[in-house]
Design brief:
Radius of gyration of chain A: 20 Å
Shape of chain A: globular
Order of helices and strands of chain A: EHEEHHEHEHEHHEHEHHHEHEEEHE
Number of helices of chain A: 13
Helix content of chain A: 25-40%
Oligomer: homodimer
Distance between the termini of chain A: 38 Å
Number of strands of chain A: 13
Chain lengths: 355, 355
């Protein structure tokens, strides 16, 4: 794909329209440097080269997420696409489909970037989706907001394929890993040795049903739970669990890719130096604790000290996950336009750590 | 110059050996991924392809800084260089010189990177030195720790020349701008609009005579002072001024390049949204105030909030300036090795701001 000018908006295809995908669609709609041209989930897809407008999108994502199964219909968007002479399937741009991903793949020339907002259960799901894109299309920029160490490790394993596809894949680009692990890379600059990185997050959501995948990902970190067990839980079972904890999930020693990403960036020698935990309140929008990254190290003069990055309590999970992901996506496009390809972690497009 | 493997240490030439240059030499000596091979000031230079060892350097920088004028002499290092078959002037590697920069320029094949730790008075000094390097040598990586907006603006003006020399120049890469302005770029990710960035720094130094250039740069920000007037002050005049303020300098509305760098990165629309101030205590190593970057913005949900980056009080100016500069320098080498050239600010090798 020929590099498009940075003056033109980056055309984004969104994979997934759960809570994260919906918020991302809303945020993208508020930006002039990017445009949402496609979205899909497991049941259907929508595509408009001129950009999916927010109203249509609001209805649409509800349709798709709830299992959109009506016959394909012409929408106001379809008329616009047809007028623009863009080939879309049967002139339709909103459709249910058995393999929505395939529908997007066949129209990959219509977008520059892929925002992966799919649920991360199981870990293998996102790599397999990415491989389908890599086999079909070159020159794309990908960004994900994966959290688990195992999931991010699988993305690194695709490096050769990403390079062959002359693409850029940025992984672990949400809040943590992402914003907070990037802050740890900055904080590390002042020290000769880093002793520890502690990330302690607070998230408050008034209604967990808007973030069903996220809640199950958190439950999977509880003692006695696995990714598979959490994924298999019904909504009623999740409700029952939350009833026992007064709506709160307090998590420690989470398997979070901040450890792998900070190891790769040279901030820590051992992943055990990175500790991630937090508190999720599923009944109040107010954060139960303030989200903080604390890096402790020794300076060249031999002094122990800590730098901290503290997120404002009024900022939501959606703001702190999607904003950074879009910032990384733009950097990915910058790298691709300069012929730099491969898989990069969110800690790897920053000042480096000179060891 | 052929790109050297990232496995080999980055060979650094240091311009300047005042307080900053000396601390940088010490820190570089603690790193395995870089090596100090040359250093110069206005009176002399030292060069050893195998690396200037710390002991020699300690004596040497004192010599040079105090106006080293003895005849060129053979040092233990000279024997090593000669044995290695490296051409150095008359077999000497420590020498007084009328134009020490020229001596380094003629041996530019011996280093990969230039750390500019020269005093920033006047603003034109560093650009003119850089131009001499750019005319003579290609493929180098440069990093500076400039602070003034006017000085950084002059470095951006060299972009064409830096690109023609297939080099990378990173500007404003100290603590502020540098570490703190980079933190502002990260913090901005969570917001749709950024209202303000406030940087409030504290520096404590037990003996200002070790940081003569830095103190004069700070004095130049006081009401009634100019860069020229501060530069012209004798040590006795500086002492007399500090006597009046009990050794403290409190500065507000500083002309600091954080404003230009954050504007270029798209964090703010107007430079006036960035406020830099701080307190310098010249009589106590303890910081008079905690150094903090506070970014305030509005999220996509319309909420006002602030993210903060807080430096540990035990970290010194030297640690917070030189560590980041070396981290940027390594990123600069990474970019150069991938064929990306030009002048970049410290806010421009990070996740970008999607506007």
């Amino acid at each position: 794909m020929a590099a498009r000018s940075l003056q033109e908006p980056i055309r984004i295809a969104m994979l997934g329209c759960g809570g994260l995908g919906k918020a991302a669609a809303q945020i993208i709609g508020m930006k002039r440097e990017c445009r949402l041209v496609a979205i899909c989930d497991s049941t259907g897809y929508a595509l408009d080269p001129d950009g999916l407008d927010t109203e249509t999108l609001a209805a649409l994502t509800t349709d798709i997420a709830s299992g959109y199964r009506r016959p394909a219909r012409r929408s106001p968007l379809a008329a616009r696409s047809a007028a623009a002479g863009v080939a879309t399937a049967s002139g339709l741009d909103i459709a249910a489909a058995d393999d929505p991903l395939q529908e997007l793949l066949e129209r990959a020339e219509l977008f520059d970037a892929v925002f992966v907002a799919l649920p991360n259960l199981p870990n293998e799901f996102i790599p397999s989706v990415t491989q389908r894109f890599l086999r079909r299309s070159t020159g794309l920029v990908y960004v994900d907001v994966l959290k688990r160490t195992g999931a991010v490790a699988q993305m690194y394993a695709l490096d050769d394929q990403v390079q062959r596809a002359r693409s850029v894949y940025l992984t672990g680009c949400g809040a943590t890993p992402g914003l907070l692990s990037a802050a740890a890379v900055l904080a590390a600059q002042s020290f000769i040795t880093v002793e520890s990185v502690e990330i302690w997050w607070g998230v408050g959501i008034a209604n967990w049903a808007q973030h069903k995948a996220t809640i199950r990902e958190d439950i999977a970190h509880l003692p006695g739970y696995t990714v598979e067990r959490a994924k298999a839980m019904t909504d009623a079972e999740v409700d029952a669990l939350l009833e026992q904890t007064n709506g709160r999930l307090e998590l420690h020693h989470m398997e979070h890719a901040d450890d792998l990403l900070l190891e790769r960036a040279g901030v820590v020698d051992r992943r055990a130096q990175v500790e991630v935990g937090g508190v999720m309140d599923t009944r109040h929008a107010r954060k139960p604790v303030t989200t903080t990254m604390t890096l402790t190290g020794i300076t060249f003069e031999g002094r122990r000290s800590s730098h901290r990055f503290v997120l404002g309590d009024e900022t939501t999970m959606a703001a702190n996950v999607i904003g950074p992901a879009l910032g990384y996506l733009k950097r990915g496009a910058w790298l691709r336009d300069r012929g730099v390809h491969g898989v990069f972690g969110s800690t790897e497009v920053l000042p480096m750590v000179m060891r």
